Recover the amino acids of this structure.
């Protein structure tokens, strides 16, 4: 099998997982652990994921028989990446909670992979040239390049009918644009009910105490319906909190502009500094777009910035309880340094 980039670069390796050729956007993740959570993150829809950590699969894959009731180690019901690129696959896994290997799990979900690739070299390539389209090709089964940014990926990963979780006094509407399940878990653990609604759902007719905008895949400008629904909410005084794609959607609704990063932020070690302080938080991230905070209207202020490249990592309204972050305070995988942001939002309800 070969990993072929759109600029003609070819990396050879050995096939594992489901036997098929696929294409998508090639991105890299520098995290050392958490591949079950990472692969089930809907934000990776349409992407071929390169793991820079050389050893993948050593602790297998846990039981997902309780996949529908949130009580598991997965962030959605299935693997969302197009394919996986690694240096070394561990087939003889060891963990008390594992019931199958990474390869068997990928075969079940029809996800191909390639091992034996110098993933550090691929990463250095993408860091210098920028993210590229690519494909995993089995000999004799070539496929055309596929650009996921040209599609509304959110519509492919969002639920289609509202779902209710919990029965508490406080209630948030969660707009599902590719929601990770730990966002829901984070509210339930704080005794807040969640009404999860589809990406294009008109939530203005619902009764709720706050609005939550979830993470998700792709270009934020591809969901104008969501942006308009959020823009209508901004004239009101109810608390609003956005994460990742939700941060971008909130920013676009406020009047700012987005742009594509050269190679994105995908890892569990991204340093983010709170504006006006010297406090730096280590965060979990997964996104390819960012907000140009120079285009924010006067009543909006930058909240966090990335210590590596200076890109915006959060905004907040100057007077209303409306804010968002580009990183993932719910983690899974990654550090929980910023989980206090859920506490702050719940206290606003």
């Amino acid at each position: 099998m070969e990993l072929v980039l759109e600029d003609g670069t070819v990396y050879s390796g050995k096939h594992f997982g489901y036997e098929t050729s696929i294409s998508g956007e090639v991105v890299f993740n520098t995290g050392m652990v958490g591949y079950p959570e990472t692969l089930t993150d809907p934000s990776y829809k349409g992407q071929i994921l390169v793991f820079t950590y050389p050893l993948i699969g050593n602790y297998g894959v846990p039981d997902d028989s309780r996949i529908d009731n949130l009580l598991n180690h997965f962030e959605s019901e299935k693997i969302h990446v197009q394919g996986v690129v690694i240096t070394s696959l561990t087939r003889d896994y060891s963990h008390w909670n594992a019931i199958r290997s990474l390869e068997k799990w990928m075969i079940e979900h029809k996800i191909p992979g390639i091992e034996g690739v110098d993933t550090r070299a691929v990463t250095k390539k993408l860091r210098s040239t920028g993210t590229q389209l690519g494909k995993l090709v089995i000999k004799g089964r070539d496929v055309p390049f596929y650009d996921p940014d040209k599609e509304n990926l959110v519509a492919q990963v969002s639920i289609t009918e509202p779902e209710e979780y919990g029965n508490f006094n406080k209630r948030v509407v969660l707009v599902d644009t590719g929601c990770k399940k730990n966002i829901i878990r984070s509210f339930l653990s704080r005794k807040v009910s969640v009404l999860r609604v589809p990406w294009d759902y008109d939530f203005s007719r619902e009764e709720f105490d706050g609005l939550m905008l979830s993470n998700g895949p792709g270009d934020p400008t591809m969901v104008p319906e969501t942006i308009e629904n959020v823009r209508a909410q901004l004239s009101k005084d109810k608390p609003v909190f956005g994460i990742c794609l939700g941060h971008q959607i909130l920013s676009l609704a406020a009047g700012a502009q987005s742009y594509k990063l050269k190679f994105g932020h995908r890892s569990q070690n991204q340093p983010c500094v709170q504006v006006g302080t010297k406090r730096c938080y280590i965060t979990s991230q997964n996104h390819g777009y960012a907000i140009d905070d120079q285009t924010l209207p006067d009543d909006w202020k930058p909240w966090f910035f990335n210590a590596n490249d200076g890109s915006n990592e959060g905004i907040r309204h100057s007077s209303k309880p409306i804010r968002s972050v580009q990183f993932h305070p719910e983690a899974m995988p990654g550090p929980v340094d910023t989980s206090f942001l859920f506490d702050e939002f719940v206290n606003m309800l």
Q: What stands out?
A: The chain has eight helices and 22 strands.
